[in-house]
Amino acid sequence: MSPEARPEMSSATKEILAKVRQIVPPMLEKFHKGQLGRVAVIGGSEDYTGAPYFSAMASARLGCDMSHVICTPGAAAVIKTYSPNLMVHPLMRQSPSEASSSSSGSNHPSDTDPKEISKKIIEMLPRLHVLVVGPGLGRDPLMHDTLAEVLAAARERRMPVVMDADSLGLVVKTPELVMGWREVVLTPNVVEFGRLWKGVKSEDYDPAQAEGDPARHVTALSKALGGVTIIQKGGADLISNGEETLVVDLEGGLKRSGGQGDTLTGSIATFLAWRGAYLEKLWDHGGDMKEDELLRLAAFGGAAITRECSRLAFAKHGRSLQASDLTEQVHVAFMNLFGETSK
User: Fold this and answer.
1) What residue numbers does the annotated binding site for ATP cover?
2) How far from 201 is each of 61, 185, 195, 204, 224, CA to CA, in Å?
3) Where is the binding site for (6S)-NADPHX, in residues?
4) Are 69 and 52 in contact, with CB atoms under 8 Å apart?
5) Which of 62, 70, 84 is nearest to 40 (CA)?
6) DSSP assignments along 47-88, one per residue
7) Is residue 53 within 8 Å of residue 33, measured between CB atoms?
8) CA 310 to CA 322: how far, in whole Å?
9) 3-state secondary structure of 269
10) pLDDT digit string (tens) for the chain, length 343 residues
11) Rounded to an integer, what distance in angstroms lies between the CA atom of residue 101 and that of residue 73?
12) Coil, strand or helix at 224
């Protein structure tokens, strides 16, 4: 089977993808720059520069108009060399004791006070549609405290936010940060899911207990967090808001290289931006899908794109597959699953 020959999918998946397709805006002359998605990834620190790049590039390759990375100055200098297509903002700061020699080293409040650091980021929020937080964030306490300030401001705006990687540690530590925030999408892997479960439910996570009912835990955790959307990544991705659960069972690749989850966060973010355009009726789609359903469909679309990217990249590269190979397949995956249309 050639990489382009996609395996047969279940009828349920076909039906859901048809709904996701309704969110995708057509390519119309009347649209202007920025209407179809302004996404920002908050992450990128001294030791981690690849993750925010892969997330932001997935968002851009899928079709958002403007893709930003908000990171530390040291990370910004590196990420800017990866691609001139991304807008990179060196607004985050690491704790002075952990900051790299390339940082200013200043003890001024603008470099050490999370409220001060977050101000310029919060000022950007009205110009953005969606945030992705976590890729390359690391575990530095100043980075986490700054992100908490930004998340509080984003919540006030009911802004869609995709949380991954080390940002999930904030949820473990302070679940109230996202409790009941319906526009949040958490994307834990199996280890991160276990930490979330223990942090929120105060008990160890035992996957064996879900045998015969694979959605049991993700549904329970979503309910415990007040209805946030959770994507439990695995052999099949499970998406739940505590009330309804979708299963993404498309075939993916067999290589589990680091960085594939970053393609997921960026892809979800673009679908969430398109969700906003759908709700604003920027084109004549004639649909009446509601906010909650659209949120789940955006998560499903991002997961489907990522699994198709993984399948295509693995067919081409086999065990040598790397995260950058998924980035190169984003548009092909989109065309395979949704095609293109204009009206």
Assistant:
1) 233-237, 252-261
2) 38, 18, 10, 8, 7
3) 136, 189-195, 262
4) yes
5) 70
6) TB-HHHHHHHHHHHHHT-SEEEEE--HHHHHHHHHH-TTSEE
7) no
8) 10
9) helix
10) 455 566 788 999 999 999 999 999 999 999 999 999 999 999 999 899 999 999 999 999 999 999 999 999 999 999 999 999 999 999 999 998 754 444 444 567 788 999 999 999 999 999 999 999 999 999 999 999 999 999 999 999 999 999 999 999 999 999 999 999 999 999 999 999 999 999 999 888 887 787 778 899 999 999 999 999 999 999 999 999 999 999 999 999 999 888 999 999 999 999 999 999 999 999 999 999 999 999 999 999 999 999 999 999 999 999 999 999 999 999 999 999 999 865 5
11) 11
12) helix
Q: How far apart are the first and last CA of the chain?
A: 33
Specify the pLDDT at position 207: 79
Alpha-carbon span 168 to 182, nearest angstrom = 16
**Residue 234 DSSP label:** S
The binding site comprises 136, 189-195, 233-237, 252-262
Determine contact, residues 278/335, Cβ cutoff 8 Å.
no
- For 312, the token pair is 């295509």
Count CB atoms within 10 A of the CB of residue 245.
18
Cα 94 from Cα 288, distance rounded (Å): 45
pLDDT recorded at residue 254: 94
CA-based radius of gyration for the chain: 19
Q: What is the token pair recorded at 62?
A: 């899928």
CATH number of the domain at 11-96+108-338, out of 1.20.58.100, 3.40.1190.20, 3.40.605.10, 3.30.750.24? 3.40.1190.20
Ordered by start, the domain boundaries in the chain are 11-96+108-338
Report the C-alpha gap between 164 and 149 in whole angstroms: 17
In terms of C-beta density within 10 A (0-12 exposed, 13-18 middle, 19 or more buried), how is residue 10 classed?
Answer: exposed
